[in-house]
Design brief:
By secondary structure, the chain is of the alpha/beta class. Helices cover 36% and strands 16% of the residues. The mean pLDDT is 95. The structure holds flavin-adenine dinucleotide (FAD) and succinic acid.
Length: 518
């Protein structure tokens, strides 16, 4: 198959780019491959909203920039922060034009929420299901454009680069497309394209306990790493402070930070409000600080969770803004009006990823990346809440603008078909599941909120054993989605551990006991 633009992923990043480029060139073909149903993505579950300076009377670009830089703990790229924040209102305007709805207040202005690390109310939202609404609007627009083809249940296995092509210098980094598997038939085919956009999202599933859905297995980061793209800042995993605690460890439901912005407070098992002891911003300190504080409380008490207390809040206002959270808690027999919500930190967001410049170019020619799979320099050591939907919108636009002005001729290369000679249908599914659980346990136990060099090195040793077993399985077996995902998660786990060991100073979301200054 040949396409003008190949997009891997149908979340906010992939869809925004696809819609823009397809609107601009009705004669060019955009193919989106996506490994689950077309709407399944981290985007779909985003709750809080999009951080944008809309209320210019009280807020300003300067304040949003300052908040982002403070959260990033000195490691943000200031130029990038400025560019993203300044572009926010224009990108938001486009979302509205595509039909996304955001809540308004009685005065007819956007109802803006507040989240940790923000000095002003600036989170535009659609109740507590903002991501669902954005995904809906973007998919509706994409379906109106006949030059976009969305291929659901199609899994991108690997990027095609020079090392696949006879006669090409493998050190000359260039991408020509991807090997893709139709998950319904098992057929593996090549999609050739001059411009490839990785928009494959996050890595949450590498940790067992996460707010991310099952698609978040870091495939894009792993593929780019195999293709020798530069990957950075993988040590900065953001743990969200308030995932709903589930004794079985299965729930990944998020209690939005906007709930704390609405006035909810955190209490330990004794009912004590502990956050003011850690930071003057209390519950609205940035996420890294709140998660580390909860972790400390849990270690001191031996408890499994802390509580989020909403019982003092205006319940009519709460229900209007957070109906989904209210209902979900009820399903767990928690009535927010009278009960405290048991919460615990969970892996939520990858601040690092595939390194890109300000127009979304990776270190591989023809390969662009956008959204959560990237490291743009916006987040530094810790992402400011609700800055990621914004980042995806802005970078999708920048990549679109750049490609709209670039030569789009598909390169004349002879890509070999996928070769699975000598492989057999895997009989060892149980091995894949077992190894997945082991990887998740290693990451949770040795590479969590608080790390140490000893724990990181132990993690590497355990991972080596699993990795060699999985590589053998991969060489012998006919490809399956679960096996590819496991292999990708192992690559991501290695990157997180290696880059953690390289960081000798604690910053933002990275905290290593061996780096504490004596
Ligand atoms: P995604 O939306 O995750 O999309 C990735 C796509 O790639 C999916 O379609 C997936 O199926 C596909 N894919 C992955 N691998 C492959 C493969 N191998 N082959 C084919 N397809 C593949 N951010 C905010 O700014 N504000 C919020 O309020 C907010 N709330 C959040 C709440 C939750 C519960 C979660 C999990 C995240 C939240 N975030 C929020 C973060 C934000 O939602 C994500 O960072 C953002 O949506 C990522 O968008 P994306 O397009 O990069 O990736
Ligand atoms: C939330 O609603 O707490 C999530 C916001 C985010 O991850 O940016």
């Amino acid at each position: 198959m040949i396409s003008d633009y190949l997009v891997i992923g149908s979340g906010v990043a992939g869809l925004t780019f696809a819609v823009k480029i397809a609107e601009k060139f009705s004669d060019r073909k955009v193919v989106i491959v996506t490994k689950a149903s077309e709407d399944e993505s981290n985007t779909k579950y985003a709750q809080g909203g999009v951080a944008i300076v809309l209320n210019k009377e009280e807020d300003s670009f300067k304040k949003h920039i300052k908040d982002t830089l403070i959260a990033g703990d000195g490691l943000c790229n200031k130029e990038v922060v400025k560019m993203v924040v300044n572009e926010g209102p224009d990108r938001f305007e486009e979302l509205l034009l595509w039909g996304a709805n955001f809540d308004a207040n009685d005065a007819g202005k956007f109802d803006l929420g507040k989240e940790g690390g923000h000095s002003e109310y600036r989170i535009a939202h659609h109740k507590d299901i903002t991501g669902f609404e954005i995904e809906r609007a973007l998919l509706t627009r994409a379906h109106q454009l006949p030059n976009i083809s969305i291929l659901p249940h199609h899994f991108a296995i690997d990027l095609v680069t020079n090392h696949h092509i006879e006669g090409k210098d493998p050190d000359d980094l260039c991408c020509y497309g991807a090997y893709v598997m139709n998950q319904n038939t098992g057929e593996i085919f090549t999609i050739k394209s001059n411009s490839i956009l990785l928009a494959s999202g996050g890595i949450g599933r590498v940790y067992g306990h996460t707010t991310n859905p099952v698609i978040a297995t870091g495939d894009g980061v792993a593929m780019a790493h195999r293709a020798k793209a530069r990957i950075r800042d993988m040590e900065f995993i953001q743990f969200h402070p308030t995932a709903l605690y589930d004794a079985k460890g299965e729930s990944s439901f998020l209690i939005s930070e906007a709930v704390r912005g609405f006035g909810a407070i955190l209490r330990n098992g004794k009912g004590y409000r502990f956050m003011p002891d850690y930071d003057e911003r209390a519950e609205l300190a940035s996420r890294d600080i709140v998660s580390q504080s909860i972790d400390n409380e849990l270690k001191k008490s031996g408890d499994s969770h802390v509580y989020l207390d909403c019982t003092h809040l205006d319940m009519d206002g709460f229900m209007a803004h957070f109906p989904n959270i209210y209902e979900k808690c009820l399903e767990h027999h928690i009535d927010i009006k009278t009960d405290w919500i048991p919460v615990v930190p969970a892996c939520h967001y990858l601040c690092g990823g595939v390194d890109v410049d300000m127009i979304g170019k990776t270190t591989i020619d023809n390969l662009y990346a956008c959204g959560e799979c990237t490291r743009t320099g916006l987040h530094g050591a810790n992402r400011l809440a609700s800055n990621s939907l914004l980042e995806a919108l802005v970078y999708a636009h920048n990549i679109y603008k750049h490609l709209a002005e670039s030569d789009n001729t598909v390169k004349d290369v002879n890509i070999p078909d996928w070769n699975d000679d000598g492989t057999v249908i895997p009989k060892e599914h149980v091995l894949v599941q077992h190894n997945l659980k082991q990887v998740q346990a290693i990451m949770r136990d040795y590479v969590g909120i608080v790390r140490s060099n000893k724990r990181l090195k132990s993690a590497l040793k355990h991972l080596d054993v699993i990795s060699s077993e999985v590589e053998d399985l991969y060489k012998e077996s006919r490809i399956s989605t679960t096996l590819c995902e496991l292999r990708n998660m192992i690559s991501v786990a290695y990157l997180i551990i290696w880059q953690s060991l390289e960081r000798t100073e604690n910053k933002g979301g990275y905290y290593n006991l061996d780096n504490i200054k004596k």
